[in-house]
């Protein structure tokens, strides 16, 4: 495995793009609570944190469909059922982020990048309406020049569109940028965009080790990159 400076030929990246859930913030306790409120309102059994952890990473709609299916595979779930459950989930998730926590090492790494005046972006599959309030709640607002949510563009990760958009805004070439994420979608999006990718080992990757996606670098904590 390469070190961060080795990845950039002894320099630092000119732009760093981050995933949110499972990378910066452990948001699964609040996501699971909202899923369970939704399931209770539908007269169904709770799913619980351990199941929901494996279902997070492809946005709210897919999370809700997986909860309805009780499984990662959700192709048999119908549209009207999805819409009804999604509305309940979005209402249950709004406003309460009290169980979500910032992972160790995150703040130190963001501070280091900020003091080096490296522009930062957030690219998440989470619905955009939740992103500013969650960041503010955890005192992570003020770091990111660009915020891209799961519904900001017509497609979400693993599609590389958001990475291309941010790099264009920043005027930075793919080889000078870095993506930091926790799941297969992040690694696939970064690779499709030609962006070096660091994966964190502590996040959510549908119950599979993220090492199997072959990120350029794998770390147990972001402060290992300082
Ligand atoms: O909300 C999700 O499904 C995952 O969001 P993420 O892209 O920040 O990991
Ligand atoms: Mg994630």
Short key terms for the protein model shown above:
alpha/beta; binds magnesium ion; six-stranded parallel beta sheet; 8 strands; binds 2-phosphoglycolic acid; HAD-like_sf; Rossmann fold; carbohydrate metabolism; two-stranded antiparallel ribbon
Q: What would the principal axes of the Cα set say about the shape?
A: globular
Mean pLDDT score: 97
State the secondary-structure class. Answer: alpha/beta
Give the end-to-end Cα distance, rounded to a whole number of Å.
Answer: 16 Å
Low-confidence stretches: none
Ligand species = 2-phosphoglycolic acid, magnesium ion
The strands making up the biggest β-sheet line up spatially as 5-4-1-6-7-8
Query: For the report, how would you describe the main beta sheet?
Result: 6 strands, parallel
Task: Work out the helix count.
Answer: 9
Helix and strand sequence? HEEHHHHEHEHEHEHEE
């Amino acid at each position: 495995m390469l070190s961060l400076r080795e990845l950039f030929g002894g320099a630092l990246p000119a732009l760093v793009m981050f995933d949110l859930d499972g990378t910066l913030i452990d948001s699964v306790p609040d996501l699971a609570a909202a899923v369970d409120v939704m399931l209770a309102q539908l007269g169904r059994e709770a799913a619980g944190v351990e199941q929901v952890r494996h279902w997070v990473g492809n946005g709210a709609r897919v999370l809700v469909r997986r909860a309805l299916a009780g499984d990662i595979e959700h192709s048999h779930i119908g549209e009207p059922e999805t819409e009804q459950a999604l509305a309940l989930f979005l209402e249950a998730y709004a406003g309460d982020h009290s169980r979500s926590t910032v992972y160790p090492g995150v703040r130190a790494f963001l501070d280091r990048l900020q003091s080096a005046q490296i522009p930062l972006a957030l690219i998440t599959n989470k619905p955009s309406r939740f992103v500013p309030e969650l960041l503010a709640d955890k005192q992570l607002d003020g770091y990111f020049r660009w915020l891209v949510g799961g519904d900001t563009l017509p497609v979400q990760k693993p599609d590389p569109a958001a990475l291309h958009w941010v790099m264009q805004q920043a005027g930075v070439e793919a080889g000078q940028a870095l993506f930091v994420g926790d799941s297969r979608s992040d690694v696939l999006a970064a690779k499709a965009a030609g962006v070096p990718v660091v994966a964190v080992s502590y996040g959510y990757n549908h119950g599979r080790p993220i090492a199997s996606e072959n990120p350029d670098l794998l770390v147990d904590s972001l402060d290992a990159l300082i």
